[in-house]
Amino acid sequence: MSISLTVSTIIFLLIAARQWLPSAIRIWHIMTFGAIVLLGLRQITFKEAFFAVDWDLILYLFSVFSIASALYDTGISAQISKRILSRKSPNAILASYVLIMAICAALLTNDAAAVIGVPIALLMARDMKWGVVPLLILLCATVTIGSMVSPVGNPQNILIANAGEFDNMFFVFVEWIFIPAAITLVLSIFWLKRFLKIDDPNHAVGIQSRESDEITQKWPPLLSASLLIILIALGSVLHNVEGIYHPSLGQIGLAACLPIYLASRERRRILREVDWPTLFFFISMFVVTGSLLKSGSLQFFLKESGIDLSEPETVTFVSFFASQLFSNVPVVEIYLHLLHEHGTQTLMMLSAVSTAAGNLFIISAASNVIVLQQAEKFGIQPFNFWQFFLLMLPVSIISVTISYIYIIWYGSL
């Protein structure tokens, strides 16, 4: 076993067992320390590590995190919660919240939606006397499932969209994944809402919403969010038009967040509140996977085993179970490097299943960790490992099963 494979295995096992480690140790600490160890052991050079990082993805995530931070900082999240709570019935309130968060995840990534959705969920739990734990778990399921239908819905989809070079990446994702995602989301709501009324002493009584007179300069983050959506849509439509410049997703993100950093009086605070730990996690993850790929260990194993990575059953099995140990983003990063052909059905199966795999454990998706960490910022004790697993196990089984059946069926047409 190579040093890179050994270190990578230790990293991912530590991430899998993080709930038993001291609370001060975060996932990004483990991944970053692993990257430093591999650099120190010269398993990958600094130059190789730099080029192993998908900087376009990092720039895009920085941009959407900046927009998410600004939306909360200016009180827009509180205003959204008031609009949602103005609905007449609890079912309408819950449905509105889920729909808004799913759309936000599809357009701004699940990680950004997690940042935006936590304070709204806590305000709803306080006013509706709902349990914080099931509502936050519902948020995790919503942003994960909502992100499935968009090429910019989550980091692994961005990697897949770049690898696939689709004519119209939005249309392809909607065509293959929208229906199973919509069915899964509806079934998940029916399953999880039954737990909202369970007695929970942690009713987010300390969370406070901002009053309207405290909210200033709302237009920069609103303009940035609008620009991001418009530029991504235009980029998708004009993707195959020759003779014009085609900006990358990272460039689009940076252009969209310019109003925040040029015009907002709170730009320094917004910059500080960007989810830097998650960005460090992804940078370190790319270094670790780059070292692992450089070692050739995985390529040798696959060659000796004779596994065909393009088979739907193999894609489903490997991407689902590997995501539980490695988290879905590094799994997709490695998988794409090992695939010989990037067929549409293979890529869509990889996207759907690796994303749906994030519904099983806290560590299976970065957005789950973000929800947990954001709740802790507000002094709330969120869900633990077993609470998350027990409530999300049915959601995970349903999402993977429906996605697999639909993609196989649609690919046979």
TrEMBL record:
<dbReference type="InterPro" id="IPR000802">
    <property type="entry name" value="Arsenical_pump_ArsB"/>
</dbReference>
<keyword id="KW-1133">Transmembrane helix</keyword>
<feature type="transmembrane region" description="Helical">
    <location>
        <begin position="169"/>
        <end position="192"/>
    </location>
</feature>
<feature type="transmembrane region" description="Helical">
    <location>
        <begin position="385"/>
        <end position="409"/>
    </location>
</feature>
<feature type="transmembrane region" description="Helical">
    <location>
        <begin position="57"/>
        <end position="80"/>
    </location>
</feature>
<feature type="transmembrane region" description="Helical">
    <location>
        <begin position="276"/>
        <end position="295"/>
    </location>
</feature>
<feature type="domain" description="Citrate transporter-like">
    <location>
        <begin position="18"/>
        <end position="336"/>
    </location>
</feature>
<feature type="transmembrane region" description="Helical">
    <location>
        <begin position="348"/>
        <end position="373"/>
    </location>
</feature>
<feature type="transmembrane region" description="Helical">
    <location>
        <begin position="315"/>
        <end position="336"/>
    </location>
</feature>
<feature type="transmembrane region" description="Helical">
    <location>
        <begin position="219"/>
        <end position="238"/>
    </location>
</feature>
<keyword id="KW-0812">Transmembrane</keyword>
<dbReference type="InterPro" id="IPR004680">
    <property type="entry name" value="Cit_transptr-like_dom"/>
</dbReference>
<dbReference type="GO" id="GO:0005886">
    <property type="term" value="C:plasma membrane"/>
</dbReference>
<comment type="similarity">
    <text>Belongs to the CitM (TC 2.A.11) transporter family.</text>
</comment>
<feature type="transmembrane region" description="Helical">
    <location>
        <begin position="28"/>
        <end position="45"/>
    </location>
</feature>
<keyword id="KW-1003">Cell membrane</keyword>
<feature type="transmembrane region" description="Helical">
    <location>
        <begin position="92"/>
        <end position="123"/>
    </location>
</feature>
<dbReference type="GO" id="GO:0015105">
    <property type="term" value="F:arsenite transmembrane transporter activity"/>
</dbReference>
<dbReference type="Pfam" id="PF03600">
    <property type="entry name" value="CitMHS"/>
</dbReference>
<feature type="transmembrane region" description="Helical">
    <location>
        <begin position="130"/>
        <end position="149"/>
    </location>
</feature>
<keyword id="KW-0472">Membrane</keyword>
<keyword id="KW-0813">Transport</keyword>
<protein>
    <submittedName>
        <fullName>Arsenic resistance protein</fullName>
    </submittedName>
</protein>
